[in-house]
Specification:
With 143 residues, the chain is an alpha+beta fold. Helices cover 15% and strands 37% of the residues.
């Protein structure tokens, strides 16, 4: 996705302010830039499928998925209060696994690997503690 950010001064028009005038926005944009660089092939060569892998929509979750032929990247934003978020996804239509299992790497907002786990095609996930408006990132590879 593409961001077009034009902060405004209080009472001013779009583009009249500086990103540095809004520290939370500045921090979020820096985090996004770092994640984009870390996972660049997904953004350049991947197909965006949005939240299509979700089994059920979750109002407190903003989720975008990018698929490559043999892997996927899921970027989840907690659009609710601080805490863990649970969701269910079906990986099979998007990633074919001969064994029926998938490796899931979980990253934090900074792109730091938190854990690696294995799941079936029906993926039930509970994020680590995620503050409101922060991200959890998952990289999924069929086994």
């Amino acid at each position: 996705m593409y961001l077009n950010v034009f902060p405004s001064r209080k009472g001013g028009i779009n583009g009249s302010g500086l990103i540095s005038d809004y520290p939370p926005l500045s921090r979020a944009l820096k985090q996004c830039a770092k994640l984009r660089k870390q996972f660049l092939p997904y953004f350049l060569e991947g197909t965006i499928i949005g939240d299509c892998l979700l089994v059920e929509l979750r109002p407190q979750v903003r989720l975008n998925t990018y698929t490559l032929p043999d892997e996927a990247l899921v970027v989840l934003m907690n659009d609710s209060a601080d805490g863990s978020v649970e969701f269910k996804a079906d990986l099979a239509p998007w990633l074919k696994s001969p064994s029926g299992s998938y490796e899931v790497k979980t990253y934090d907002t900074e792109g730091k690997l938190l854990r690696t786990a294995t799941t079936s095609a029906l993926w039930n996930e509970k994020t680590p503690e995620v503050k409101a408006t922060e991200l959890a990132v998952y990289e999924i590879t069929p086994q």
